[in-house]
Amino acid sequence: MRGLRPRAGVALAALLVSLSSVPVLAAGRAPAHAALRSAARPGPDRFDEAFRKYSKRYFGPGHDWREFKAQGLTESNLKPGARSHVGARGVMQLMPSTFREVASRNPDIQRRIDDPEWNIAAGISYDHRLWCQWEQDSVALHRREFMFASYNAGRGTLLAAMQAARAEQLDHRDWSSIERVAPQIRRWRYRETLEYVRRIDRHLGAMDADGRLISSAGEE
After folding, report:
1. Mean pLDDT (the chain, rounded)
2. How far apart are CA 70 and CA 66, in angstroms?
3. Can you give the pTM of this predicted structure?
4. Where are the domains of the chain?
5. Fold of 48-205
6. Residue 110 phi/psi, 5° resolution?
7. What is the band of 43 on the pLDDT scale with cuts at 50, 70, 90?
8. For the CA atoms of 120, 40, 203, 182, what is the dihedral angle to 10 degrees?
9. Is 220's pLDDT higher than 80?
10. Which of 3, 108, 177, 182 would staple 170 via disulfide (CB 3.0–4.6 Å)?
């Protein structure tokens, strides 16, 4: 072969250097910046350790920790920065006054309400208090529904519903009785509360045994 002219050789060398600087992606592999964006995107299992830890602390090792993850999904879709129009905050949508009151009973809860781990800890601790109160009221079979409903609507609202159920000679400890008399309770946004309990059940049903979401819970 004849040698290249000097100018042509320089142009070819420049072209080769330019091409060598273009990143070559392996087949089926996303660019590095796309992978970083994906890794930074929070997943639905990012707080599982906290849900496991505080479920075990407040309810014991035999309790299904996934119930509280399902509650967190229902409350905020596990968003630590979530805030409601009435001022509830964090993963478990606690009012600041409730968080302070729970923290005063639990010296280990030392950080702010916006810290997701302590928000989860306080929410589960508050659940446990409600759980024990309903146990004292001899609610057994449907204690979980009473606990979550009173977390959403307040224990006093549920006590009023129980009284209405007794007035109609219904089993006031049965959740279906509460659903039946709910429209009678003044100032109770009962549809919201009943749907809240159903949404927790749907989220729980969408998880596998390890708490991973394996199907859509039908949420927007």
Report:
1. 85
2. 6
3. 0.79
4. 48-205
5. Lysozyme (1.10.530)
6. -110, -15
7. confident
8. 60
9. no
10. 177
